[in-house]
Design goal:
- By secondary structure, the chain is an alpha+beta fold.
- The chain has three domains: about 5-165, Jelly Rolls (Sandwich); about 165-210; about 220-290, Homeodomain-like (Arc Repressor Mutant, subunit A), CATH 1.10.10.
- Helix content is about 50%, strand content about 20%.
- The protein contains eleven helices and twelve strands.
- Strand 2 and strand 3 form a beta hairpin.
- Helix 2 packs antiparallel against helix 3 and helix 5 packs across helix 6 (about 200-210).
- It is globular and about 55 Å long.
- The protein starts with a strand and ends with a helix.
- It holds the Pfam family HTH_18.
- This is AraC family transcriptional regulator.
Length: about 290
């Protein structure tokens, strides 16, 4: 039996909101089909699924056995799968890329040929901002929606490229060290000495494989660590700054605005406003539980 084909912007679930802008379609949905009744199906167009609430089963590369949001899945054109929610309790947001836009991307950006799981902050922030724009739709929001869609696609392309490259073992260890120790001062000379290579060779190979300088990568890691820490509303900004390697809250605020276009406080308010109330309540309940 052939898989059911889903046309542009069509998904299993009740659609509560739908928008269109510049060849992109956006929708906010709730699941309506029980897991046992979900059949294998094919999506004609490339699309993203932003998990907001509920437990989801996904065959995407890098996805855990049981997926929980917030997290983002990219599915290329022609994806055939049986991804679904475990129950009819959930919430998700979708971005579908028209065939015309996908063809335009072909010459400028290499997107993954397989579904890709993304739970990094650099992907989640534009996705959450896109959801906010769709909920408060006007002419300016349509422009923002188109721009944020391109931003998401560019990030997915970069991430797929990084994961497909085969750097030397010493270079992978350098990147792991940057990840593990991004909150403390690091110098190229020290990284090169630990790797057993010349600093010039390290800098050149890092850019060749990861398409950025080590310093740029370190700044990105610190911003992502700050984003993760900001998910805890009880954590003071000074502590968030310390955990992410910033001198103080003011330094964090300056870097955050430069990197994401909003303040740490703005991001906390955005996140709190967009996450479902039930999800927030569960997290607060877990935080208050003894032990």
């Amino acid at each position: 039996m052939s898989a059911t084909r889903f046309a542009h912007g069509v998904f299993l679930g009740r659609c509560d909101l739908r928008r269109e802008a510049g060849g992109f379609s956006f929708a906010e949905l709730s699941p309506t089909v029980p897991e046992a009744q979900v059949q294998t199906h094919r999506h004609d167009d490339a699309h993203y699924v932003l998990l907001l609430d509920g437990v989801y089963l996904s065959s995407a590369r890098g996805a855990p056995a049981l997926c929980r949001g917030p997290a983002l899945i990219y599915n290329p054109p022609g994806t055939t799968h049986r991804d679904c929610f475990r129950s009819e309790h959930g919430r998700f947001f979708t971005l579908t890329v028209s065939a015309t836009r996908e063809r335009e991307l072909g010459a400028a950006l290499s997107l993954p040929a397989q579904p890709l799981w993304q739970d990094d902050a650099a992907a989640l922030l534009p996705a959450l901002r896109l959801l906010a724009a769709c909920r408060a739709w006007d002419e300016a929001a349509a422009l923002s929606g188109e721009a944020l869609s391109w931003e998401l696609l560019a990030h997915t392309g970069r991430l797929a490229l990084e994961r497909s490259l085969r750097p030397a073992g010493w270079l992978r260890r350098v990147r792991e060290q940057l990840r593990d120790e991004c909150a403390r001062p690091l110098r190229i000379a020290d990284l090169a000495r630990a790797a057993g290579v010349h600093p010039v060779h390290l800098a050149r190979e890092f850019r060749r494989h990861y398409r950025c300088a080590p310093g740029d990568y370190l700044r990105r890691l610190r911003l992502e660590r700050a984003l993760s820490a900001l998910a805890d509303p009880r954590l003071p900004l000074a502590e968030v700054a310390a955990q992410a390697g910033y001198a103080d809250a003011a330094h964090l605020g300056h870097a955050f605005r430069r990197g994401y276009g909003l303040t740490p406080g703005d991001y906390r308010r955005l996140r709190a406003a967009l996450l479902p109330r039930a999800q927030v309540a569960r997290r607060q309940s877990r935080a208050a539980a003894p032990g």
